[in-house]
Write a structure and sequence with these properties.
Oxidized Rhodanese, domain 1; 30% helix; alpha/beta; 266 residues
Length: 266
């Protein structure tokens, strides 16, 4: 797990990585940048979910479609990140947005970032001294970006269902059960999907559970021959994908359109 997570002690003792602050609020898209400007991990650069970690919305494809690969690679290169650059990512939302960056970089063939365990709140609680100065990025050449791997659109999802792939809905149980739906126009879940809420990967302070408890979170789903994971729009599902990788299950597919895409076809 230490290859995928970075603990506060290691962060505070020094590193040679490019650091990205991924804080974001779905209800206030400007909040993350405002918080970053008010204080961040020294040397960190800011990435915005809507502007940097997602593409343009269309009639289908969900609220946060994948960004154009070449555009995303250019964004990373603007901050000096090449295919093998060491990167650290953090947020203050129990990995929700840092894990999206982790998945995007891994799916594009980059060295995946390590995610800060306990996030920005843990950094402050451990005595970290935030800075408000904006770091000047040092750009580098952008690798040739081909395409993301490890994801499916709705047609590929239907094909996976015909092969009896196991679908995992990462949203809160109330949304999965259809008791409430605060974002999308239709409540419910994709038929046949099981529920593994993404918040269960961490404790209330954003600390990732140990391997035994992560395996308990997944249970028999770990034995499924084919796994497809989704959420509302392909963001918090990446927390579940990160947790699967932590326990050694890497051959998992993301349905980035998620419920917000699926329900547009109803």
């Amino acid at each position: 797990m230490s290859a995928m997570l970075i603990e506060l002690g290691e962060l505070l003792s020094g590193h040679n990585a490019v650091v990205f602050d991924c804080r974001f609020s779905l209800t206030d898209p400007l909040e993350g940048r405002t918080l970053y400007q008010q204080g961040h991990v020294p040397g960190a650069h800011y990435l915005n979910l809507n502007d940097d970690l997602a593409g343009l919305q269309a009639g289908h494809g969900g609220r946060h479609p994948l960004p154009d690969p070449a555009t995303f690679a250019a964004t990373l290169s603007r901050f000096g990140v090449g295919a093998d650059t060491a990167v650290i990512a953090y947020d203050d939302s129990r990995l929700a947005f840092a894990a999206r960056l982790w998945w995007l970089m891994r799916a594009l063939g980059y060295r995946p970032p390590r995610i800060l365990n306990a996030g920005y709140g843990g950094f402050l609680e451990a005595g970290g001294l935030p800075e408000t100065q904006l770091s000047e990025p040092q750009s580098c050449a952008s690798p040739v970006a081909v395409n993301f791997s490890g994801y499916c659109d709705i047609e590929s999802l239907r094909e996976a269902q015909s092969r009896t792939a196991l679908l995992v809905d990462s949203r809160e149980s109330r949304r999965y059960e259809g008791w409430e739906e605060p974002i999308d126009p239709v409540a419910g879940h994709i038929p046949g999907a099981i529920n593994r809420p993404w918040q269960s990967v961490t404790d209330s302070k954003g600390i990732v559970l140990d391997e035994a408890r992560l395996k308990a979170h997944w249970g028999d789903a770990l034995n499924a021959e084919e796994l497809v994971v989704y959420c509302g729009s392909g963001v918090t599902a990446c927390v579940n994908l990160f947790s699967l990788a932590l326990v050694g299950r890497n051959n998992v597919t993301l349905y980035p359109g998620g419920w917000s895409d699926w329900c547009t076809y109803l």
